[in-house]
Design goal:
Nucleotidyltransferase, domain 5; globular; alpha/beta; ATP-binding; 8-stranded mixed β-sheet; disordered N terminus; 420 residues; cytoplasm; 20% strand; kinase; 38% helix; 6-stranded mixed β-sheet; binds adenosine-5'-diphosphate
Length: 420
């Protein structure tokens, strides 16, 4: 690693991070480790970055802090080394993590099963439970366990907290979380709707409630739809502070059309491809998760490319967009009925926050249902929470930037403090 001029002060503290508590948030994927160091009370991000291509030929990583960009390239065979790369990046940037007043390490864990309804202080038992839940999330939980093991080795004296993507949705009503699958098989193999992106759905629905409450609205029974549209995408119906339904299921494959995932599809596709194409279960799993969705439909999964291609007359991109929006509208309609009416729709995540065309197409022609967008407000590229519906729209439509890292940091701090 290269060593630029130190940027910390004489005591080795982060620039601008004197004595306030910080939380290190880790999001371990199968081949990546995202990290963020932040002050969850002042809501200030001190540094963030990613280690990529873990276990592949040549790893790469970078850390960003203000104007500083600290790169790294080299072998990263596993998450243990990835964690060392992270601490090395901080050191090279003149910021010792050991000196950064880290009071908790928050780990994003995709699958917490039915058991983990709230964030958990990680001990050996919790760690083993997360590993055991890998059967339900083979693409996600094993990586989280590797990240947890590596971080606990490096920071043995700091509390580690697991924040589960599924926790918010453990409160789903029974009829929403139960599949119409043979009950004995479902029970034996723990098959039910767990949902995902729960940290984001909870955070965004709380932001919407807080905004409306500050305007004097009684939000105890507020009927919300949250559309988290990132590379992975999910919708939820929330009443008051309770989820009534969500589109992701046993795994994050179900529901909306996504960057590379099919979303809802006839389960018989597995049998058909197995019998007709001789594909193995793993091959079909990879096809449905990694090379379908927008990527499979038009060869692109970044909406910057897709919208540019549509403007240039690309018919495959246009069809992919229509398929994407068709699915979204189906969910908006069905959740409005599930909720028995609708007060708010919030768009969030990379696409929800940045692609006005998706928001417009999703909600156009719904005036009869009290949904009227303000085209100018929708087209404006602003940061922060903003309303994009017209003043006379019965349903308030908002863009609400999500911040999963902040939510994880805040929950981790709370758990770490109450464990003392
Ligand atoms: P994830 O966390 O699932 O990777 P994000 O919420 O970061 O997803 O969203 C990533 C996606 O958001 C990108 O693939 C791209 O399609 C879209 N996106 C992000 N920024 C923009 C932008 N400025 N304009 C258009 N699309 C964007």
């Amino acid at each position: 690693m290269t060593s630029p001029a130190p940027r910390s002060d004489a005591a080795g503290r982060l620039p601008g991070v004197p004595d306030a508590a910080t939380v290190l948030v880790l999001n371990s994927g199968s081949s990546s480790l995202k990290f963020q160091l932040l002050d969850p009370v002042a809501e200030v991000v001190h540094a963030s970055g990613i280690v990529e291509r873990i276990g592949q030929d040549r790893g790469q990583a970078h850390l960003e802090a203000g104007d500083l960009r600290q790169p790294y390239a080299g072998e990263v065979p596993d998450h243990k080394v990835a964690m060392e790369v992270v601490t090395g990046l901080f050191e090279d940037a003149g910021m010792s993590l050991q000196e950064a007043n880290v009071v908790a390490v928050g780990h994003r864990v995709v699958q917490g099963g039915a058991r983990f309804t709230s964030p958990q202080l990680v001990d050996s038992w919790v760690r083993d439970q997360i590993a055991d839940l890998g059967a339900l999330a083979p693409l996600h939980n094993p990586a989280a366990v590797q990240g947890i093991d590596a971080a606990r080795r490096l920071f043995p004296d700091i509390p580690h907290v697991a924040v589960f993507d599924t926790a918010f949705f453990t409160a789903l009503p029974e009829e929403a979380r139960t599949y119409a699958l043979n009950a004995q098989v479902a029970s034996e193999y723990r098959i039910r709707r767990y949902g995902a992106h729960g940290t984001s759905h909870r955070y965004v629905s709380e932001q919407v409630s807080a905004l409306l409450a500050s305007e004097g609205t009684d939000v105890s029974d507020l009927r919300q739809i949250v559309l988290h549209l990132g590379n992975g995408a999910s919708a939820s119906a929330v009443r008051g502070d309770a989820p009534l339904d969500t589109s992701m299921g046993l795994t994050p494959l179900e529901g909306l059309v996504m960057g590379t995932r099919t979303g809802d599809i006839d389960a018989s596709v597995y049998a058909h491809l197995s019998r007709s194409a001789g594909m193995s279960i793993d091959e079909i799993d990879t096809l449905l998760n990694k090379s379908s969705g927008m990527q499979g439909l038009c060869g692109m999964n970044d909406f910057r490319d897709i919208t540019a291609a549509i403007r240039a007359g690309d018919e495959r991109a246009e069809l992919a967009m229509r398929v994407y929006v068709h699915r979204l509208r189906k969910y908006v309609g069905s959740y409005a009925f599930t909720l028995g009416g609708l007060d708010t729709i919030a768009f969030t995540a990379g696409i929800g926050e940045n692609v006005p065309e998706v928001r417009e197409r999703t909600l156009e022609g719904l005036e009869a249902f009290g949904i009227v967008l303000d085209p100018e407000a929708n087209a404006r590229r602003e940061k922060g929470v903003r309303t994009i519906s017209a003043p006379d729209s019965a349903v308030r439509v908002l863009v609400v930037p999500t911040d999963e890292e902040l939510a994880i940091a805040q929950q981790s701090l709370e758990v770490a403090r109450s464990a003392r």
